[in-house]
C-alpha cells in the first residue's frame, strides 16, 4: 500500500529548510508549522530524504524570491537538473563531449553512448546531435543519481529525434531507466508478469512521469 503522505519527520525538516530559505514568504504562504494533513504532505508522499535534498538543491540553485508550489517542488525532487547535483549543465556537457573533454564520468558515459565518432565530427550548432546527446546525458544523470551502472547499454532511439515530441523522448528515457533497474535487481527480462510487477513497484507510468 502506498503512503498517503510524507512522513512527519521529513515534512518538519523540509518546513524548517524552506522557512530558512524564504522566510516570511514561506510562512505567510504555507504557515509557520508543517501541517501533516496539508497539501504539501500529500503532494510529496512517497519521497525520501535524498529526493527532498535534490529538490532543495534545485530551489537554492534557481534562487527565486518566492517558493515553488508543492507539485513543482515534487518535480524538482524526482527530476533533478544536472547542475543541482554538481554535474555539468547540458550545454556545458555537450561542449565537453564535442571537444573530447571526458574527465567527468557521467559526460564520458553519455558521449560513449551517443557516439564518440559523431561527437568528434559534430558542431555546436548541430541541433539533432545535441538532442541525441541531451537525451542520453539526462539518462546517465538519472542513473548516476540512482546509483545505477553507467555502462549499461542505452537503447537506440527509433526514428529521428527531431521528429519526436518531448513526451516521446521522456517515454524513451523512462523505458531505458526501467531496463537498467531490471538488470540491477536481477529480475528476468522475459515475461510480461515480471515487467508489470516492476512497473507497479516503481509506480512508473507512461509520459516519462515517476510517481512514488
Give the SSE layout:
Elements: H1 8-22, H2 24-30, H3 39-43, H4 49-62, H5 70-78, H6 90-99, H7 105-114, H8 116-120, H9 127-146, H10 166-185, H11 192-202, E1 204-205, E2 209-210
Antiparallel strand pairs: 1-2
Summarize this structure as a short list of keywords or feature phrases.
212 residues, mainly alpha, 2 domains, two-stranded antiparallel ribbon, elongated
Describe this structure in words.
The chain is mainly alpha-helical. The chain folds into two domains: 8-80, no CATH class; 85-210, no CATH class. It has eleven helices and two strands, in the order αααααααααααββ. Strands 1-2 form a two-stranded antiparallel sheet. Helix 6 (90-99) packs across helix 7 (105-114) and helix 9 packs parallel to helix 10. The chain starts with 7 loop residues before the first helix and ends with a strand.
Explain briefly what this protein structure is.
With 212 residues, the chain is mostly helical. It is built from eleven helices and two strands, in the order H-H-H-H-H-H-H-H-H-H-H-E-E. Helix 4 (49-62) crosses helix 5 and helix 6 (90-99) packs across helix 7 (105-114).
Principal-axes shape call: elongated
**What is the N-to-C order of secondary-structure elements (H for helix, E for strand)?**
HHHHHHHHHHHEE
Query: What share of residues is helical?
Result: 55-70%
**What value does the Rg take, in angstroms?**
19 Å
- Determine the structural class based on helices, strands and strand pairing: mainly alpha
Oligomerization state: single chain
- Strand content bin: under 5%
Taking strands numbered 1, 2, ... along the chain, how are they ordered across the largest sheet? 1-2
Q: How many helices in DSSP terms?
A: 11
Largest sheet: 2 strands, antiparallel
Mean pLDDT: 80
Number of structural units classed as domains: 2
Distance between the termini: 11 Å
Give the low-confidence spans.
157-167, 187-191, 201-212
Number of strands: 2
